[in-house]
Write a structure and sequence with these properties.
Distance between the termini: 77 Å
CATH topology of the largest domain: Four Helix Bundle (Hemerythrin (Met), subunit A)
Number of helices: 5
Strand content: under 5%
Radius of gyration: 26 Å
Oligomer: single chain
Helix content: over 70%
Length: about 170
């Protein structure tokens, strides 16, 4: 039996439609599965797993991001400790009767200077991490993380909002 040109056209349209539906179903299943991995990482409060999953890091990218994270954690802890100590000294001055305005202003300036040093270092670190990602993923990571830097309370290393900023 010889199929006519109209039947062949319908066959091709049907095959194309099935391919589109199968592709959409596959993509949806992939996204749901991947989003589940992201949700699991968030539930465990595991920032590195979240980075690996949500930003689709290869093994090599993930190893470098982990190395950067571990190296920066020491620096960040030092910054946070310095800020905490300066804030304690400032607060002690504020609580002391008869504290001089100039001393209080200097203590406030010191806390702010240390915050600026810390926040600048965090921004550099975040950019280094983003540089390890595919360009589009790196841009998305920067858009997500850079605006949050000013919200850190400097009681501990930032964790991308997965945990409170404390040790």
């Amino acid at each position: 039996m010889n199929a006519g040109p109209v039947a062949m056209r319908h066959l091709w349209k049907t095959l194309v439609l099935l391919a589109v539906v199968a592709g959409a179903a596959g993509w949806t299943t992939y996204r749901i599965g991947r989003d589940g991995d992201v949700r699991d990482a968030l539930a465990r409060r595991d920032a590195l797993t979240w980075l690996r999953t949500d930003f689709q890091l290869s093994d090599a990218q993930f190893a470098e991001v982990r190395r950067l994270h571990e190296a920066y954690a020491v620096v960040c802890e030092q910054h946070c400790l310095a800020i905490q100590e300066a804030a304690i000294r400032r607060n002690q001055l504020k609580a002391a009767p008869g504290a001089e305005a100039a001393a209080l202003a200097a203590a406030d300036r010191r806390v702010e200077e240390l915050r600026q040093v810390c926040e600048s270092a965090i921004a550099v670190h975040v950019r280094e991490v983003a540089a390890q990602m595919a360009p589009e993923q790196g841009r998305r990571y920067l858009a997500l993380v850079l605006p949050r830097i000013a919200d850190f309370d400097h009681r501990a290393a930032p964790d991308l909002g997965l945990n409170a900023h404390r040790h």
